[in-house]
């Protein structure tokens, strides 16, 4: 009998969105199905897609998915440092789940040692508790201009002596050059930990790619452990929507149960947060969801969703500048459905008092981008919002009529006045707003509550005049997510050299990996 598998591995990528998150989730699910006690880890994430853990902390959405792949509840231990961009130059810094202020690149540089200690302590704790820890890098290790402050790529690998697999997305083109170049630009000590490659999103005949993989091994001395095929059914819990094209569909909905489709336009705000809220709708047969960034894309939609935002007032100004605000007003006058979630909910109200964002931006070069202290909302709902500390971050449960619901809140904004009927009951208190065909709530993840979603979609279809739309009786978002995780694990098991993967986790990087010499 072989010894139990113990060790750790870092999955890096040639670029952002190369597939690191899904590869980590797939490896975690595959190991968990084998009975291995496995946990995910991402030292530092930069994303406005976050979730709230049971203890009220924030982590990246991808790490929550990876935790579920392991059969674990999401924990701040799995993502101890989270950066949430609020502008091109400043990000909110979340450490061990709690917001501790805003930072720019230079501020972050001064805090690197403090954050390294946090990261090292959490990873060491996980390695003590679990058999295997699968770590995810951030961006690309080839960003050598950031090497001095790196917490998640080669800085982590060197500190914890982790073997590294580099994932490349072949669907983007140039993947062999990306893989070779990623290794070549690293300093020799970092190169020694790069132990192999994975190809992601391959379409076609692998035998045609094999000569390139053979040459890549000859050039670098490193094997390719697997070629993962493109899988169109993998789309839930996307790490980020910023690369999504306007008009692009969300998911792959099945045909309608009735005679009508229900069409949804989700506004792609510049600083969108928790964009995954809308994905639950795309799980429903007969519900077609697309991203929109112009008023013309809202005209024919049965439902428009204004999602969350990390820069509420800045994004509100964007709505006005590009005509979407006028389109939303026209919908309200016509009694056509609109849903606002968190920041989107706040934009639908009468007034926003933004003391938190205005104070944070004062005295910096970005002050011109900062919102004024008080601005008018769109006036589609009769409520006032005031931003204040501390940030609210909590899991919630409640109901809408007879339907139970669960979700989480992440926001600074408080409702200081409302004249509209409450939409929901959350933890025994009224929450949200419902006004004719306009709904709003601060609760993220609300649409994953299956019974509530079915009831509400039926109401939306009736208001929109889609009398032939019939909601599916048995769609389960949790089941769809679980099936996608199993599909990821199946792909890993079928297309990756598992013996080589196990050996790498157990034994770490070998000492005889060649260094690629380049003139510097």
From TrEMBL:
Transmembrane segments: none annotated. Residues 263-452 form the CobB/CobQ-like glutamine amidotransferase domain. Pathway: Cofactor biosynthesis; adenosylcobalamin biosynthesis. Residues 10-235 form the CobQ/CobB/MinD/ParA nucleotide binding domain. GO terms for biological process: cobalamin biosynthetic process. Gene3D superfamilies: 3.40.50.880, P-loop containing nucleotide triphosphate hydrolases. Keywords: Cobalamin biosynthesis, Glutamine amidotransferase. It comes from the Bacteria. The active site is at residues 342, 444. Catalyzes amidations at positions B, D, E, and G on adenosylcobyrinic A,C-diamide. NH(2) groups are provided by glutamine, and one molecule of ATP is hydrogenolyzed for each amidation. Belongs to the CobB/CobQ family. CobQ subfamily. This is Cobyric acid synthase. It comes from Nocardia alba.
